[in-house]
Amino acid sequence: MGILFSLLIVVGLAVVALVGASMGHGMQMFFGVIVPYVSLAIFIVAGINKVVKWGRTPVPFQIPTTCGQQKSLPWIKHSPIENPNDTWGVVRRMALEVLLFRSLFRNLKTEINDGKLSYGSEKLLWLAGLAFHVSFFTVVLRHLRFFITPVPAFINITDSLDGFMQVGAPHLLLTGVILVAATAFLLYRRIGMAQIKHISLPADYFPLFLIIGIALSGIVMRYVTKVDIVKVKELTMGLLSFSFTVPSGIGVVFFIHVFLISTLLAYFPFSKLMHLGGVFLSPTRNMPNNSREKRHINPWNDTFGTEVHTYAHYEDAFREKMKDAGLPVEKE
Amino acid sequence: MAKPQTPKPEELVKVDYGTPGKSWIDIPVEFKDGHWCFGSRPEFLEAVGMPNARDWKPDEADWKLPDDWKDTILQGIKERLEKYRSFHIFMDICVRCGACADKCHFYIGSGDPKNMPVLRAELIRSIYRKYFTPGGKVFGKFAGARELTEEVIKEWWYYFYQCTECRRCSVFCPYGIDQAEITMIGRELLNLIGTQTGWIAGPVANCYNKGNHLGLEPHTLSSNMEYLVDDIEEITGIRVEPSWNRKGAEILFVTPSGDLFGDPGTYTAMGYLMLFHELGLDYTWSTYASEGGNFGFFTSMDMAKRLNYKIYAEAKRLGVKWIIGGECGHMWRVLHQYMDTWNGPADFLEEPVSPITGTKFENAKSTKMVHIAEFTADLIKHGKIKLDPSRNDHLNVTFHDSCNTARGMGMFEEPRYIINNVVNNFHEMSEEESREKTFCCGSGSGLNAGENMEIRMRGGMPRANAVKKVRDKHGVNMLANICAIDRATLSALMDYWTPDVGVCGAHELLANALVMTGEKKRTQDLRLEDLPGMEEEANEEGDE
Amino acid sequence: MLDPKLKDILSLKKTVVLNQWFDAVLDTFPEATAELLRKKRNPLNDPVAAEIFGGLTNVLNGFLEGPDFNADSLVLDDIMRVRAVQDFTPSRAVSFIFLLKKVVRKELAKDISSHKLERAMLKFESQIDDTVSICFDIYVKCREKIFEIKANEMKNWTYRLLQDANKVKKSAGK
Closest-CA residue in chain A for C42? Predict the structure, then answer.
């Protein structure tokens, strides 16, 4: 139900762009220029706002989740990445987490071996997650060619690596295929696996459909309608130079593509997609485990836990009993 | 909250495929017998000045919440969003990938979907969305948001007290979302309106006024220890002489009070007494700070800090140089990650140096509190104690990593080093069930009551299952650990699932192997049970 | 022991019988749980389902391979120990064995008539009934154990205090 709803919204968005873009130059201006500007502005302002809000929230306690041996006695082998003791360790732990999804790599699945419950390695989610993010990132990187003149060498290299299979014309770019496949798998998990379906919200299906829509419209433009790249670049460069032009004959698919991207951008800061920023700030991962070595300061420490039961109270309550038991007391 | 009815025979064989696709939000919480703890009594809350002290029963419809409970909870959430980056981020960024779902021992054991960490967090996230995010305000249920009602409070209470704050889920989460953190905040919120369990509130009140969870007064503590001292004398022929509240001692020793009174924890306490005596350590126990554990930690940060205050205060009053802490799980999470921040800086203490080996404990130079396993491992490494591991030859030992020392500290090798030096037969549980992936005993974070025994047994099932595997494969008959709650609760767990496996602390094993100066020939272990074959092997030497 | 012919047919249809039985057993769980467990394509993806499935497999194998179940059967003990701490009434806790009858009747209906196995089937059903009684005994034993543990825990936690209060002799207390 949430699935169908999310799908319908994405289809609806595409239809809106389709109808709009077919209505002539004025509406193309709206979908090709105004909407991207607005959504980008929302993305930047609301995104930064969210991260700043997080960043301003104090980290009262040093709570890393330790996944390896602590640094204690010099002869005990310390695990500097899984249980970092200093900033350099944290940097490496975070790099593994952000670039290679270290924690997901640990994933286990339940099995029965010889009639007994045991746990085997489960790498599919890790693989799909990584494939999705890496291909998405590469696709975004490739798109920089529409915004930079001349196209920097690294983008051309990315493109040629991506199209190394040299099938079709234009060359099939592998990341596009991987992106669609990985997104489809992530969607399949949510629909086909009861456990995951049970925990999924419309907010989980919606971005997946949106991204599939973006990828498919992009693929259609490249391989089917063969969009005029020169005109597209004219438009995108216009966006950068604030010289709002929408060349005619770009084709409606382009506007669907851009509208879905705009939706994604505007939706991003208000959604779980903000994990992009949050992952860097997660206190269980980005703090060193050295809380006994170096005191962690909580800015609001003095505002709580002040009413205490002092030793004087205690001795007052039990002085006679303590004396009878031969325990030393402060006041006779 | 209807109790399950006895089904009719035809119902027993009925195949009913239910309503597919029902959202968890639409499934009301059902209080099942044996899954929840009794409510707090008013006097416990009054003793520490907690709000809404009253008589109430969780299985009754009326929870006697204060009139403004809803505002209190919402204000409480707002305040915590502004105070804890962890909470704020964890409310926002979960993508519901499901990696945590089957990592929770309560989910594995109960199959209740709301025991998946992700859903346990959604219980509170749904409220966060409704009242604190634009999407939730506008789109409501479609954005995964819902109204805050008394039913929600009951659901929180039921499930936040079915989480042992073990952090296993956070190991697997790609963003490090820690359900322990969310549960802790959830319980704080519940405490704002006086909904606490008696099993937690009682020890908190006791600890506050009397210094320990059991509420033992100073003379009871000191006189009770004499029983341990008597037993040690019977076993070794040596009378150890512990001191209490002694000013000028070099070291203050703090451990969970449970180990002084409850079996098998007492044998671990005897282990400490014997080790310290053998070393001639200049140390003292305290009656005022006689609790290492901190049930305040299962109540609120405020309460935890107030209870924890006593340790540094007592160290300062007695003028000791530094502190050693005994074997305990959540106690060490608190000491390691919170104490210095709350009640430090401990600038009246000195950086800890072992008086026996001269080792500087660099990793504890700010807190000035050293874990006994670190202290003892260092002794063994330097050959400062004589050990005869063959006295433990009748034991096939495995080691249970306690959640808090594992995932809130990273203490894996120190206890293993000790155990490997004091026993000859040691077998690890599988990699997926130990170290950072260790399974909880199912009774941590104040859930070790009697009335919720069924869920304890279910939650502990994955742990027991792992023990069963090493028992069947290697003949393991002893489960060692470094946690006082483990010693109590794993005993119950083993008794149910694997009755032939005993439970002990690492320092019980150590003390059994410890060759003390001037001791008589050992024929009994610390449990006053005969040491098998010790007569024949009396002239054999331990090889380590 | 199972009639050899019935055993052969049951062995051949083991997978389908097991799956049907598993589905039926899941219905003895609370709605939300059962729904999740049932929808698994592969029961092994879920820990609880895996555990139940493993138990049922062992019990079915027990019926097929023998020896006949008795009060010391580990297979029954394993499964009952789990069910005794689930939220079941005693009747529900042991009912899963009954469900096997129905499933076998349904899945082997044709074979039973074509191979004239009615008598063997009746015998098998009475064997199942006996097993239910054994399960019930184990269930009761497990429940007693739970209460014993509760009592022991209380005693253990405060052992030394009781020692003080009652001056109990350790040997007498143990």
Answer: A193
Q: Domain-by-domain residue ranges, chain B?
A: 22-196, 209-381, 389-513
Q: Which of B16, B27, B261 sits opposite C161 (nearest CB)?
A: B261
Protein fold of B389-513: Rossmann fold (3.40.50)
Q: By CA distance, what is A315's nearest residue in B? A: B288
* Rounded distance between C-alpha atoms, residue A50 and residue A45, angstroms: 9
Enter the DSSP assignment of A270. Answer: G
Q: Is C132 inside any structural domain?
A: yes
Burial code of B234-265, b = ≥16 C-beta within 10 A, e = fewer? ebbebebebebbbeebebbbbbbbbbbbbbbb
Number of domains in chain A: 2
What is the tally of structural domains in chain C? 1
Burial-class residue B164 by CB neighbours within 10 Å (0-12, 13-18, 19+). buried
Q: Is the CB of B222 less than 8 angstroms away from the CB of A325? A: yes
Is the minimum CB–CB distance between B260 and chain C shorter than 8 Å? yes
Cα within 13 Å of Cα(B148), Cβ side: 23
Residues 201-230 of B with CB under 8 A from C: 214, 216, 220, 223-224, 227-228
Distance from CA of A115 to the nearest CA of C (A): 5
Compare all CA atoms of chain C with the CA of A115 and give the residue at the minimum distance: C54
A294 and A314 share one domain = no
A113 to chain C: closest CA residue: C54
- The reply to whether B209-381 and B389-513 are identical in fold is no
Per-residue tens of pLDDT for chain B, all 544 residues: 444 444 443 443 333 333 345 788 888 898 988 999 999 999 999 999 999 999 999 999 999 999 999 999 999 999 999 999 999 999 999 999 999 998 999 998 888 889 999 999 999 999 999 999 999 999 888 889 999 999 999 999 999 999 999 999 999 999 999 999 999 999 999 999 999 999 999 999 999 999 999 899 999 999 889 999 999 999 999 999 999 999 999 999 999 999 998 889 999 999 999 999 999 999 999 999 999 999 999 999 999 999 999 999 999 999 999 999 999 999 999 999 999 999 999 999 999 999 999 999 999 999 999 999 999 999 999 999 999 999 999 999 999 999 999 999 999 999 999 999 999 999 999 999 999 999 999 999 999 999 999 999 999 999 999 999 999 999 999 999 999 999 999 999 999 999 999 999 999 999 999 999 999 999 999 999 999 877 644 454 444 4
Tell me if C27 is assigned to some domain: yes
Range of the domain at C24: 4-148
Select from C39, C44, C51 the Cβ nearest to the Cβ of A194.
Answer: C39
Q: How far apart are CA B292 and CA B9, in angstroms?
A: 53
B351 touches chain A (CB under 8 A): no
Q: Per the CB < 8 Å rule, is A311 touching B430?
A: no
Chain B positions touching C141 (Cβ under 8 A) are none
A112 and C54: CB-CB below 8 Å? yes
Chain A residues in contact with C39 by the CB 8 A cut-off are 194, 197
| ipTM score assigned to the predicted complex | 0.94
Pairing of strands A116-121, A108-113: antiparallel
Which residues in B lie closer than 8 A to residue C47 (C-beta atoms)? 102, 107-108, 111, 462
Enumerate residues 6+ apart whose C-beta is below 8 A from B121: B90, B94, B177, B179, B182
- Identity of the residue numbered B3: K
CA distance B104 to chain C (A): 10
* In a shared domain, residues A175 and A212: yes
The residues in B 280-309 lying below 8 A from C, measured between CB atoms, are none
Burial readout A255-290 (b: 16 or more C-beta within 10 A, e: otherwise) = bbbbbbbbbbbbbbbbbbbbbebbbbbbbbbbbbbb
Beta bridge partners of residue B353, listed in sequence order: B360
